[in-house]
Structure formats: structure tokens, C-alpha cells
From TrEMBL:
<keyword id="KW-0547">Nucleotide-binding</keyword>
<dbReference type="Pfam" id="PF10635">
    <property type="entry name" value="DisA-linker"/>
</dbReference>
<keyword id="KW-0548">Nucleotidyltransferase</keyword>
<dbReference type="InterPro" id="IPR010994">
    <property type="entry name" value="RuvA_2-like"/>
</dbReference>
<dbReference type="InterPro" id="IPR038331">
    <property type="entry name" value="DisA_sf"/>
</dbReference>
<dbReference type="GO" id="GO:0004016">
    <property type="term" value="F:adenylate cyclase activity"/>
</dbReference>
<dbReference type="InterPro" id="IPR036888">
    <property type="entry name" value="DNA_integrity_DisA_N_sf"/>
</dbReference>
<protein>
    <submittedName>
        <fullName>DNA integrity scanning protein DisA</fullName>
        <ecNumber>2.7.7.85</ecNumber>
    </submittedName>
</protein>
<feature type="domain" description="DAC">
    <location>
        <begin position="5"/>
        <end position="145"/>
    </location>
</feature>
<dbReference type="InterPro" id="IPR003390">
    <property type="entry name" value="DNA_integrity_scan_DisA_N"/>
</dbReference>
<dbReference type="InterPro" id="IPR050338">
    <property type="entry name" value="DisA"/>
</dbReference>
<dbReference type="InterPro" id="IPR018906">
    <property type="entry name" value="DNA_integrity_scan_DisA_link"/>
</dbReference>
<keyword id="KW-0808">Transferase</keyword>
<dbReference type="GO" id="GO:0106408">
    <property type="term" value="F:diadenylate cyclase activity"/>
</dbReference>
<dbReference type="GO" id="GO:0005524">
    <property type="term" value="F:ATP binding"/>
</dbReference>
<keyword id="KW-0067">ATP-binding</keyword>
<dbReference type="Pfam" id="PF02457">
    <property type="entry name" value="DAC"/>
</dbReference>
Length: 354
């Protein structure tokens, strides 16, 4: 689901390997020095500056490194185009609490809370870089740690994808026998939601990897191929809510992690709400399985379901009944019969990319 950009993700992108700002930070660390960088425009930063000098010089990593040799802060504008101040003595409000012990980090935290702008504290003793913004505090991780985290996430996603495939493969024969219960649908959706949530976590780590993200990003794309589409088709097959499947999937993706653990909460957006509905089998319309039939357009699938009904009825329909549906000639009728017969007998009828 599309939403507002997370500014913290933008900060991680600004400080990712391969960016000018990260280049400056890495050079400061390599020199064994510390530093304090404030990313804020003049009208925001100015009231907090008690001393220092204005530069209005072009932003370059080399210039930042040289200016960071002074004890106080370097202030750059939010577009990272201009160095506004050097050796700036920042004086935040003393009433703002701080949990930090070092002077540089304490000032960074207080300034970030007061003006809600990105402040970067570089520790020469601990060789660490900490980002502050409002109440948010984040310590940048080294590349090796990020690669390990991404690798673990991708391994879990690979396992989830295999499990999702098994659930979908087992679901197909039940659809022909009208023995699909809400619990079956909830189990499939739950596994897909786990994958989508983990995908967001991995994507965040990929942002931190910067220029090193290409290979794991390709792996992630392969693992997630077809998951959202499969969710929408499954919802379309079993929903009683009149809303479009895309809207229902968006609502599912917005569920809190603790709600994803509850089948009744997962089924609620589909319109399955009462105890009786939760205990009764649900007929499958067949959009998911019919979409796997080669060269069968969506428009024809919709007409087929509208005129014949659920997937089990389509499977039992005669060649003549299929031929009567506009857009289905003899070749397509044979393809439908052959494909549905395979799905009924347990052959894979799952996501694109398997």
C-alpha cells in the first residue's frame, strides 16, 4: 500500500554508502576524528547558533572533512548543496532532556528534539555514527552486519515462499470439491502477510546498503514475485465484501502485527465475520486457478465465471457449455479442461515465478 514517505528512511538513504554525505562521514572516521553535522536550512538552524562563522560554500565531502576538524558543528542545508556554517556552537534549550552521556551526542539529541531536523554525531572514541531526528535515534551499522541481516531475511522469505506454495497447491483440489473453509483462506493470507511484512524490513536494510544493494535486491524481487497478485486473486475468489480485491488487500496490509496472528481479524475485511460463516465451506469463484490457464484473458475469465459460476462448475461444464461463452473457442476450451484437471489432481497452480 502506498503511503507517505517515511522521513527516517530518507535519512538512511542520505547516509547510505555511495552518497556524498556518507563519503564525508567515512573519511572523518578514517582520520580517527569525531564530528557533529546538522542538516537544516538557515532559518531553522540560525536561532540555535551562538557562535561560529558563515560559509555559504558548496557542499563537498572534502570540505566537510576539513571543517569537521574543528570542535563544533558543521551546518549544511537540507538539499545538501551548501555548507551554511562551520565551527557552529549549537545551544539547544537546557530544558530538553537527554539520555546521552557524551557532550557531542547530548547536544545532537537536544537539537534534534528541539527543531526536528537530522543531526549526525560521529564518535571518535567508539568509531560509531548516530543519527538523531526528533525522538528517533539510530546508530548506523557496518556493511558486514547489514549483509548478514539481509541474508537472514532472504532465507526466511525463501522458507515462507515454499510454505505458501504448499498451502496454495493443497488448496486447489479443495476448491473443486467445495471443501475450502475460512481457516484455509486465512492460513494462505497469513503466510502472504508475513512475507509482505518481512519484505518491508529487508527493503529498509537495503536502503542502508546503498550502492551494495543490487544483488540482494534482485534476490528479494524474485522471492516476492507474484505474492501481491496471488493475494488479490485469492481475495477475489472468496470475498463476500463488495469492495474491489485491491482495496481489501490494502486493508490487510495495514493490519497490526498482532492482528495478523488472528484468523478472524484477517477474514473480517473479506466480509467473513459471523461464527456461522467461519465454520461453513466457501465456494471458490476460480479467478486464481483460471488465471493460470495459458492465453486466457481476464475479460474471458470474468465472462466465464459470470455465465457458469464457481470453479467447480466450470470444471464440470461440457465442451459445448464452454464454447457458448464469448471468447472461448475449441482451443481455449481444451486448455481450460486440461489445466483445471491438473490443478484438481494436485499439480502446482500457484504464483508466477515458480
Amino acid at each position: 500500500m502506498e503511503g507517505k514517505k517515511d522521513p527516517r528512511l530518507e535519512f538512511l538513504r542520505l547516509t547510505a554508502p555511495g552518497t556524498p554525505l556518507r563519503d564525508a562521514i567515512d573519511r572523518i572516521l578514517q582520520l580517527g576524528r569525531g564530528g557533529l553535522l546538522l542538516v537544516a536550512n538557515r532559518e531553522v538552524a540560525g536561532p540555535l547558533i551562538a557562535a561560529g562563522f558563515e560559509l555559504n560554500a558548496p557542499f563537498t565531502p572534502q570540505a566537510i572533512v576539513e571543517l569537521a576538524k574543528m570542535d563544533r558543528a558543521v551546518v549544511v542545508n537540507e538539499e545538501l548543496e551548501t555548507i551554511l556554517y562551520a565551527n557552529a556552537h549549537l545551544v539547544p534549550s537546557p530544558t530538553i532532556p537527554s539520555q546521552e552521556t557524551g557532550t557531542r551526542h547530548r547536544v545532537a539529541e537536544q537539537v534534534a528534539r528541539e527543531i526536528e531536523r537530522l543531526v549526525i554525531a560521529i564518535s571518535e572514541d567508539r568509531h560509531r555514527v548516530t543519527l538523531f531526528h526528533g525522538e528517533w535515534r539510530y546508530e548506523l551499522q557496518d556493511i558486514q552486519t547489514l549483509f548478514v541481516r539481509v541474508s537472514q531475511g532472504l532465507q526466511i522469505l525463501d522458507r515462507y515462499r515454499r510454505e505458501l506454495r504448499e498451502l496454495l497447491t493443497a488448496l486447489a483440489p479443495l476448491e473443486f470439491e467445495r471443501r475450502v473453509f475460512p481457516s484455509h483462506v486465512a492460513a494462505v493470507l497469513q503466510r502472504a502477510l508475513y512475507m509482505m511484512e518481512l519484505e518491508r524490513d529487508v527493503e529498509r536494510t537495503l536502503v542502508e546498503l546503498g550502492v551494495h544493494r543490487e544483488l540482494p535486491e534482485r534476490h528479494l524481487t524474485v522471492l516476492m514475485r507474484g505474492v501481491r497478485e496471488e493475494m488479490e486473486l485469492l481475495v477475489r475468489d472468496f470475498k463476500s465484501d463488495p469492495r474491489p480485491a485491491e482495496e481489501i488487500v490494502d486493508e490487510l496490509l495495514a493490519l497490526a502485527p498482532e492482528d495478523v496472528l488472528r484468523p478472524d481479524v484477517i477474514l473480517r475485511p473479506l466480509g467473513i465475520t459471523t461464527d456461522q460463516e467461519l465454520e461453513e465451506p466457501i465456494p471458490s469463484r476460480g479467478y486464481r486457478l483460471l488465471s493460470k490457464v495459458p492465453r486466457l484473458p481476464v475479460s474471458v475469465i470474468e465472462r466465464l465465471i459470470e455465465e457458469i459460476g464457481t470453479v467447480d462448475k466450470v470444471y464440470r461444464a461440457s465442451r459445448r457449455q464452454l464454447d457458448r461463452v464469448k471468447g472461448i473457442a475449441e482451443a481455449r476450451a481444451r486448455a481450460i479442461e486440461f489445466s483445471l484437471s491438473r490443478f484438481k489432481n494436485g499439480y502446482t497452480g500457484t504464483m508466477d515465478g515458480f
